[in-house]
Amino acid sequence: MPKTDGRVLALDLGTSSARALVLSPDASPVPGALARHKIAPTYGGRGEATIDLHDYIEGLLGCLDELQQNGHLTDISDIVLSSQWHSIVALAGTGQALTPVIPWVDTRSVPPTVDSSFDEHAFHARTGAWLHRLYWTRRIPWLRSVVSPSSYAGLPDLVLERLTSERVTSVSIASGTGTLDLATGSYDAEALAVAGVSESQLPAIVPTGWTGVLSSAFALRWPALAGVPIHPPTGDGAASNVGTGGYDETTAAVTVGTSAAVRVVHPIDGAPELPWELWRYRVDDRRAVTGMAFSAAGNLHAWLTAVLQLDAEHREPTGVEIGSSRVIGIPFQAGTRPPETVPGGSGAYFGLSFDDTAADLLAASLQGASLEIDRGLRMLDGLFGRDLQVVLGGGGIDASAWWRKCLTATFARPTEVCAEAEVGARGAAAVALGLSPSPGGESLKPVATDVERVAALRPRYESLRALAAQASAVLNT
């Protein structure tokens, strides 16, 4: 039976911030019970993107100190974690970190070494991943070429180890490494061979029902949390889906944070055959999540409003009709996710003229991102054999009424909006405790004239998208 008594402490390990917040028994945030540590990744000109591990963990611990100082760590029954997928740290034999945290956005890797018998389509069907630099099959050989690691772990594994003194991972986090056999929930032998590691060099995978407790030192630091069960972490994409209200195969959740994704949660048993264009990870011991991710979303909005120096009053393209802008924006600023190979620095605008305004540029970017997400939604419709219901969630959704309406018109179907912005934390609690949250926000219906304009725009967008991809190849030769 779902456990709903007591409050829940959620640790949300994001790319731009680490947060600790307290949730009520129904997984709703308790007002005022939120502490945040901002994260500033370090970027370099050769594709580098790193996060300081010590600063990250100490900042997260400071968030717990802040909650305790404000009296929020009382009556906590469970501790849950939602974490960014795909991160990796190379470790020495002593367990000391040899590298910073390498997050998904870092583009460094080495080409894969496989023999002629390797079947990447079969590999993708089994692991839900590709041989792409996003995954450990490419990351580990690259790390081994620059340092001499004894083992490897992701950010959530090391946070969990710091809290409990146990270095373990969940089936959800392990699936994001690209080294998991989705059907068995164990490391995939072929993936390990490609990466050149043994299972003993990676964190042990624990079942969904596993729990740990705080080490004695942290139990003294936060006495109210002593003995409180700590649940295995859930990958942020899976957590966000469930937290938004998309927790079965009838519903696609569209979440917009730093990046964006459209995903469907479904049972792992009897899962439909995975198309080459989509990825698949695990939610927990029973469920998988299938979808498509996009590198430009909330970060695109933040970048453009900063570049255009738009104040709070002008951060919406008010006055621009959805689908009507002459300008077409192709949101390849951060490249594309696999299996496409468009690199970062490939964003483009077509149709600019001297009478275009900041609102036109902003509308074109948000419309372009919406059309990208729509491509994934239509693939998922086909995979599950129906026009899926759609729920919208995440900080980007919460921040822009225009974008919510644009997405609804682009999808050409009604949408439900999640009332809670903290969908990752909410979803981690729901996965750990067996809850089924509802969106609880506004219901949107597409405006017929908006739908017609977007339908007319779509073929032009697709043609120019292909042209932008070709131009990126020229730019990067």
Automatic annotation (TrEMBL):
<dbReference type="GO" id="GO:0016301">
    <property type="term" value="F:kinase activity"/>
</dbReference>
<dbReference type="Pfam" id="PF00370">
    <property type="entry name" value="FGGY_N"/>
</dbReference>
<keyword id="KW-0418">Kinase</keyword>
<dbReference type="InterPro" id="IPR043129">
    <property type="entry name" value="ATPase_NBD"/>
</dbReference>
<dbReference type="InterPro" id="IPR018484">
    <property type="entry name" value="FGGY_N"/>
</dbReference>
<comment type="similarity">
    <text>Belongs to the FGGY kinase family.</text>
</comment>
<dbReference type="InterPro" id="IPR050406">
    <property type="entry name" value="FGGY_Carb_Kinase"/>
</dbReference>
<feature type="domain" description="Carbohydrate kinase FGGY C-terminal">
    <location>
        <begin position="253"/>
        <end position="432"/>
    </location>
</feature>
<dbReference type="InterPro" id="IPR018485">
    <property type="entry name" value="FGGY_C"/>
</dbReference>
<dbReference type="GO" id="GO:0005975">
    <property type="term" value="P:carbohydrate metabolic process"/>
</dbReference>
<dbReference type="InterPro" id="IPR000577">
    <property type="entry name" value="Carb_kinase_FGGY"/>
</dbReference>
<dbReference type="Pfam" id="PF02782">
    <property type="entry name" value="FGGY_C"/>
</dbReference>
<keyword id="KW-0808">Transferase</keyword>
<protein>
    <submittedName>
        <fullName>Gluconokinase</fullName>
    </submittedName>
</protein>
<feature type="domain" description="Carbohydrate kinase FGGY N-terminal">
    <location>
        <begin position="8"/>
        <end position="243"/>
    </location>
</feature>
